[in-house]
Amino acid sequence: MTPAAPAVVTAPTPTRRRAFDRSIVEGPIASAVWKIAWPTVLQNAIGGLQGIIDHVMVGHYVGFTGNAAIGVSWQIFLVVIVFISSLFTGMGVLVARYTGANDHDKVNRTVYQAFLTSLVLAVGILAPLGYFLSPRLLDIVHATPAVHAQALPYLRTMFLFSIGLLMFFMLGGALRSAGDPRTPLRLGVAITFLNIGLNIVFIRGLGPIPSFGTQGAAIGTVIATGAVSAYAIWMMFAGKLVVHFPRSMSLKPDWKIIRALFRFGLPAGVQGVAMNVAGVMMLRFMGSLKHSAEAQAAYAVGYSELFSLITWTSVGLMGAAAAVAGQNLGAHHPDRSARAVHLAARMGLGVAASVGAMFLLIPEQLMGIFGLNDPIVVDLGRQLLRFLSVSGLFITVALTYTGGLQGTGDTRSPLYITLVSQVAVPLGLCFFLQQRGTLDSTGVWTAILLGHFTRCVLTVARFHQGKWRAITVD
Fold first, then answer.
1. What pLDDT was estimated at residue 16?
2. What is the pLDDT of residue 231?
3. In Å, what is the CA distance from 100 to each residue of 28, 75, 90, 296, 427?
4. Pick the residue with more confidence: 61 or 38?
5. Is residue 317 scored above 80 in pLDDT?
6. Is the separation of the CB atoms in 51 and 197 below 8 Å?
7. Would 113 disulfide with which of 13, 77, 257, 379, CB 3.0-4.6 Å?
8. What whole-number distance in Å separates Cα of residue 295 and Cα of residue 441?
9. Dist CA 456 CA 401 (whole Å)
């Protein structure tokens, strides 16, 4: 009898995975910063068009009360969303370190736990509480009845369907920290152009779809972010990105990772809440001025939108500084981490100076883009932009050095600095002037500038102390 042929055992095909970009920890440091920075800055600029287009369309179809409503609502929404998304800062610290150490498994497990945690927080906490508390939150900022009426449906829509925006923040932060800033750029472009199309439909109305006015801007945002984020999550599960979710991963929470996410992220969350609470209180001080709605409208456009021409770059460079500094510290190259932060700050200063010159030379034209032609609003906006032309230099340096601190794991120092510079200093000055009966728009704008100056000085000083070099993540 012929013996049976031995069975052929085929080894399982290993899962293909994209390699991390090692040039961030091994190549020229300026190239590493630029490689992360330019897609992030461009994404912020393109994504910022969302807010600008919202304000432009609402300003033309609703009026300056609509601009004030979006500004007030967004400031309130950020207070909550920034706190919940603080775990993404913790995630970024861990992902950058593990990427620098070339540990794929820890990177994937960290991002997966951040995904599960944010899903629970958005659906189980943010949506129901945000919907029912929105009226009380609007009362805090002394919104006029006209602004309140426009803001309430906008704010409730954003709270109820915030999951898409949170997922986008999570995905973008994870991929940038892992050295892939181009995928978040592509996703951000898709969200922006989809949102533009949806705004045209929902703000002004089209065919059988009625005009939703200010709420239409929120509807467009939540649909666009939800659809694109769902596609990106599918890409992670399909293994098409440098960070991916193997199907073998369990839905069971890994409390060790979750605790680490909050250990590094919670200070950043409290910092974000403090900053945005301060922003809400600034709106409250504006609400006590003689021309309160006009001041809030000028602030919504001048600070929340036009000033973004500076902060788009600054926040992008902050993310680049965090990713490059964190990865190099994970690869045991702390001197490269320091050089990356210094280079990012210099890049930001060039942009801030250029945009600041525009604020000084063509303020009326910039305000006119948003349909603001009320003489009082334009005058207040012109006044504000003069202050912001200087303030931009300070906030750019402060943000890039904050990125260096947070990316290396020092998330507590920026919190303490924020409490002093963004809360105590500006609110203290406004309160002092209000008690003396001399608070006016100039006093509010001065408080903003002084806060940014203080934050810049304290952040740079803290980074140069170098204590971040000894921080460990395990």
1. 52
2. 95
3. 15, 35, 16, 45, 40
4. 38
5. yes
6. no
7. 257
8. 7
9. 8
pTM summary value: 0.77
Contact 305, 52 (CB under 8 A): yes
Q: What is the pLDDT of residues 241-268, one digit of tens each?
A: 999 888 777 778 889 999 989 889 889 8
Q: Which ranges of 161-291 does DSSP label H, i.e. alpha helix?
A: 163-177, 182-204, 214-237, 255-287
CA angle 378, 382, 385 (to 5 degrees): 135
DSSP characters over 54-122: HHHHHHHHT-HHHHHHHHHHHHHHHHHHHHHTHHHHHHHHHHHHHHHTT-HHHHHHHHHHHHHHHHHHI
Contact indicator for 462, 405 with CB cutoff of 8 Å: yes
CA–CA separation, 395 vs 115, rounded Å?
A: 31
- How many whole angstroms separate alpha carbon 378 and alpha carbon 237? 50
Check if the beta carbon of residue 113 is closer than 8 Å to that of residue 253.
yes
Which ranges of 244-362 does DSSP label H, i.e. alpha helix?
255-287, 292-301, 308-330, 334-361
State how far the Cα of 337 lies from the Cα of 409, in Å rounded to an integer: 12
Closest of 102, 122, 109 to residue 25, by C-alpha:
102
Long-range contacts from 195-202, C-beta under 8 angstroms, 24+ separation: 195/50, 195/53, 195/220, 195/221, 195/223, 195/224, 195/225, 196/49, 196/50, 196/53, 196/220, 198/223, 198/224, 199/53, 199/54, 199/57, 200/57
Among 118, 126, 408, 409, CA closest to 263: 409
The two tokens of residue 128 are: 């129901």
**What are the tokens at 387?**
């202050």
Largest CA distance in the chain: 109
Closest C-alpha to 422, from 270, 276, 269, 265: 276
- Report CA-CA distances (Å) from 176 to 35, 185, 207: 10, 10, 41
Element (H, E) at 135: helix 127-140
CA distance 388 to 385: 5
CA angle, 60 as apex, 57 and 63 as ends, to 5°?
110
> In the chain, what is the straight-line distance between the N-terminal and C-terminal CA atoms, in Å?
62
- Using a pLDDT cut of 90, give the percent of the chain over it: 39
Distance (Å, rounded) from C-alpha 237 to C-alpha 173?
17
Q: List CB contacts of 291: < 8 A, sequence separation 6 or more.
A: 376, 380
pLDDT number for residue 3: 42
